[in-house]
């Protein structure tokens, strides 16, 4: 279809669109893990507890931001950024629902998250992901992230990535002094 466009903008972590995307994201990654390791989907009660336990409050100002992508006005993806320290931001919750994949939304979300991280003062972005999330690992590599050693002790993290954020501190295209 022609005329369909992506937009990406900050949104409160507890907005209806953000909550719906968080539920879809968590359901997908949890089900993928359970299907791979235990041969069944996530227990519904466990899923509800986990979704409720992770509010996303760390993705709010002054040390974070949640971005929502819309495709032709409809919520179609998310990405979060949170400062780990004064110069390091973590990229998290990058998600585009299956029916919207392949339309260019994920690179737009990551680029917007990088800009948000720069605006928070970060000079680098880090992230973690699992081995079975091959699409995510391919996306990050394609966007210039390099695999590194662990930066956290998340029990589900199997791959860690890092990217220096070019342009941090630059003014009008000139390097910072």
What fraction, in percent, of the residue positions are helical? 25-40%
What distance separates the N and C termini? 47 Å
Structural Rg:
16 Å
Continuous helix count = 4
Order of helices and strands: EHHEEEHEHEE
- CATH domain topology: Aminopeptidase
Globally, the shape reads globular
Layout of strands and helices, then pairs:
Elements: E1 6-10, H1 16-38, H2 44-53, E2 64-71, E3 74-85, E4 88-95, H3 105-119, E5 124-129, H4 134-142, E6 146-148, E7 159-164
Parallel strand pairs: 4-5
Antiparallel strand pairs: 1-2, 2-3, 3-4, 5-7, 6-7
Summarize the entry for a quick read:
This protein is α+β, with helices and mostly antiparallel strands. The protein has four helices and seven strands, in the order βααβββαβαββ.
Describe this structure in words.
- With 177 residues, the protein is of the alpha+beta class.
- It has one domain: 3-Layer(aba) Sandwich (Aminopeptidase), CATH 3.40.630.
- The chain is 32% helix and 27% strand.
- The protein has four helices and seven strands; from the N terminus they run E-H-H-E-E-E-H-E-H-E-E.
- It has a seven-stranded mixed β-sheet, with helices on both faces.
- Strand 3 and strand 4 form a beta hairpin.
- The longest helix is centred in the N-terminal third of the chain and has 23 residues.
- It is globular.
- The C terminus is likely disordered.
- It comes from Streptomyces collinus (strain DSM 40733 / Tue 365).
- Keywords: Acyltransferase, Transferase.
- This is Acetyltransferase.
- One of its GO terms (molecular function) is acyltransferase activity, transferring groups other than amino-acyl groups.
- InterPro entries: Acyl_CoA_acyltransferase, Bact_Acetyltransf, GNAT_dom.
């Amino acid at each position: 279809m022609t005329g369909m466009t992506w937009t990406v903008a900050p949104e409160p972590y507890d907005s209806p669109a953000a909550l719906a995307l968080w539920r879809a994201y968590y359901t997908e990654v949890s089900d993928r893990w359970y299907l791979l390791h235990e041969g069944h989907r996530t227990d519904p009660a466990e899923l509800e507890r986990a979704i409720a336990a992770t509010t996303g409050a760390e993705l709010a100002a002054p040390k974070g931001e949640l971005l929502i992508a819309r495709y032709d006005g409809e919520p179609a993806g998310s990405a979060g950024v949170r400062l780990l320290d004064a110069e390091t931001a973590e990229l998290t919750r990058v998600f585009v629902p299956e029916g919207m994949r392949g339309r260019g939304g994920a690179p737009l979300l990551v680029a917007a998250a990088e800009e948000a991280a720069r605006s928070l003062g970060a000079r680098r972005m880090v992230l973690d992901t699992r081995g079975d999330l091959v699409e995510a690992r391919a996306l990050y590599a394609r966007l210039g992230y390099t695999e590194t050693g662990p930066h956290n002790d998340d029990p589900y993290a199997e791959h860690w990535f890092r990217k220096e954020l070019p342009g941090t501190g630059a003014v009008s295209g000139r390097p910072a002094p």
